[in-house]
Write a structure and sequence with these properties.
The protein has about 130 residues and is an alpha+beta fold. About 40% of the residues lie in helices and about 15% in strands.
Length: about 130
Amino acid sequence: MDNIILFDGECNFCDKSVQFIIKRDKKAIYKFGSIQSDEGQEILKKYRVPQGIDSLILVEGNKCYLKSSAALRICKNLQGAWKLLYGILIIPKPIRDIVYSFVAKNRYKWFGKKESCMLPSPEIRKRFL
């Protein structure tokens, strides 16, 4: 299976995060899909992701990563100093996820919801499910 990033398709912060990743993923390692899409829902079922998870999800190989684990594993493959953030994985997951969950819980309040989807170029479009 490809490396797939599922994101909240209604979230401005999530959309900006996807654009950020695309810009720094020069090898096009990642494909993207909205959690709300049919493909996204199939992946959630396949990996038995708990109901109500609407944060960043990474499928890498045959494993599924959630929250801070997903975000930090993605950083490992980004161009530039961002890959150094991968080292934060040494911090225990419950502590990392407290910070992640705080941002996730407030993302609509701070960044708003999207009215419409971005229109990616044909080259970028093929990276979406």
